[in-house]
Amino acid sequence: MSRYTCAISQFANLTAFDILYKTAPQVVMIDRVVTPFWYIIGFLGNPISARIWLSRKVCKSNSSAVYFGSLAIVETVYLVLHVIYELQNAWGINTFHTPVRCEIFNFLLITPQYMVPMLVLGFTTERYIAVCHPFVMEKYCTVKRAVIVICCMGCASVALGLIQVYVWSYSDMFGCVFREGAEIFQQAWTWFTEMLLFLILPVACLLLNLLVIREIKRLSIESAAHGQGTNPASTITLLCVSFYFIFTLLPATIVYAMQQSITQGDSSLPLEQWASDPVWSSYFTYLTVRKIVEEICLSNYAAYFIIYYATGVYFRRSFRQLLCIPIRPKSRAVPADFSMSLTKGKHKCAETVVLNDNESPSDT
């Protein structure tokens, strides 16, 4: 009997979940313990975030709020799909390993993952324009333009995601797997999308953030020299979200890129011997590290509510109103973000004064 036949025979009555649970149970346990924690935060926080950011009072004059609200909706959709994915891969319940459902589900699962980096780049670019090029902000940073850009991002995400219908197929023996004969295309396409959306876009966000921080520092020095103060609350919120996205996504991209260099062991060995085999042991160590990084990355779809609440004055106030918590009004003049430019060789300061910071949607 050949080694291939031996491998097939011992896997005949086992699913991918069964094999993983027998050989690397720690990977399954990480999924079962950590993932529900993010579900609780995400399913509670994302709808609240969407309601606050997309309320008429906020989004009618704040284009960044449109991005934030859309981000919360996309993240909620992804978490719903991720529950289906987890039932299959962490609990062994067959949810999408059937013909047709396999292809459709993988298309649906990847589409919101494609859209999130685009949305983060969208509001990061807006903040760069608002801080570094304030006199063209009214032209480019409008609610109408934000809606158009988000719709284009959605169409692009769907178009990219449709490729998964071709890449995946259902096998009676192995379940939902890559389509036979499409392996080379799948590898090339995956590398292209991973590098574009999960490496190049985050790096672009990082560079824009650094330019924004440099400009804020310059403006702070100049405003201090003029005896003026700044209150860049909305900028802080946007920077925190953008940086959190970058520093949780990039490790996942690096770990994913490493998988091609990680060798699997001899599949003809009995499953009981896999744990003691040096090659398989190294592979399971990689899977464990990768799962931990993936769980950290999953927080991208759940933890932004915490950032909004920690950094946004208006968001905290709106959230407390939803919970019917009384708020004492504070009527005081607060200088908001301002910008400086050269007009006939002299600095010109454009400053907005908010009379009540508790009532200002722009002070997120």
Automatic annotation (TrEMBL):
* InterPro entries reported for this sequence: GPCR_Rhodpsn, GPCR_Rhodpsn_7TM
Report the leader peptide range: none
The answer to whether the entry has keyword Isomerase is no
The protein's predominant localisation is membrane
Limits of the G-protein coupled receptors family 1 profile domain: 45-308
Query: Which membrane topology describes this protein?
Result: Multi-pass membrane protein
Under Pfam families, the record lists: 7tm_1 (PF00001)
Which residue ranges does UniProt annotate as crossing the membrane? 37-54, 66-85, 105-125, 146-168, 188-212, 233-258
Q: Where in the cell is it found?
A: Membrane
Q: Which domain of life is it from?
A: Eukaryota
Keyword check for Repeat, yes or no.
no
Alphabetical keyword list: G-protein coupled receptor, Membrane, Receptor, Transducer, Transmembrane, Transmembrane helix
Stated name of the protein:
G-protein coupled receptors family 1 profile domain-containing protein
Source organism of the structure: Mya arenaria
